[in-house]
Amino acid sequence: MHRAHTAFSLALSPMAHKNFATWLLNSSSSQKLIKATAAAAVRTYNSAAAEPFANGSTATYVEEMYNAWLRDPSSVHTSWDAYFRSNTYVSPPNLAPVQANTLPLTAFNLGGAASAAPDSKTIDDHLAVQAIIRSYQSRGHLASDLDPLGILTREKTVCKDGLARRANEDIRGHNIAHLDPLEINTPELPGNSSTKSIYANFSFGEQDMERQFKLPSTTFIGGDEASLPLKEILNRLENVYCNKIGVEFMFINSLEQCNWIRKRFETPGVLNFSPEEKRLILARLTRATGFEAFLAKKYSSEKRFGLEGCEIMIPALKEIIDVSTELGVESVIMGMPHRGRLNTLANVCRKPLNQIFTQFAGLEAADDGSGDVKYHLGTYIERLNRVTNKNIRLAVVANPSHLEAVDPVVQGKTRAEQFYRGDQEGKKVMSILIHGDAAFCGQGVVYETMHLSDLPDYTTHGTIHVVANNQIGFTTDPRFSRSSPYCTDVARVVNAPIFHVNADDPEAVMHVCKVAAEWRATFHKDCVIDLVGYRRNGHNEIDEPMFTQPLMYQKIRKHKNCLDLYADKLIAEGTVTGEEVKSVAAKYENICEEAFALAKTETHVKYKDWLDSPWSGFFEGKDPLKVAPTGVKEETLIHIGNRFSSPPPNAAEFVIHKGLMRVLAARKTMVDEKIADWALGEAMAFGSLLKEGIHVRLSGQDVERGTFSHRHHVLHHQLVDKATYNSLQHMYPDQAPYSVSNSSLSEYAVLGFEHGYSMTNPNALVLWEAQFGDFSNTAQSIIDQFISSGQSKWVRQSGLVMLLPHGMEGMGPEHSSCRVERFLQMSSDDPDYFPPESDEFAIRQLHDINWIVANCTTPANYYHILRRQIALPFRKPLILCTPKSLLRHPEAKSPFSEMSEGSEFQRIIPDRGPAGENPSNVKKVVFCTGRVYYDLTKTRADKQLEKDIAIVRVEQVSPFPFDLVKEQANLYKNAELVWSQEEHKNQGCWSYVQPRFLTALNHSRDISYAGRASSASTATGSKAQHIRELNALLNDAIST
Ligand SMILES: Cc1ncc(C[n+]2csc(CCOP(=O)(O)OP(=O)(O)O)c2C)c(N)n1
Ligand SMILES: [Mg+2]
Question: Is the CB of 473 inside a 6 Å radius of any atom of ligand 1?
Answer without folding.
Answer: yes
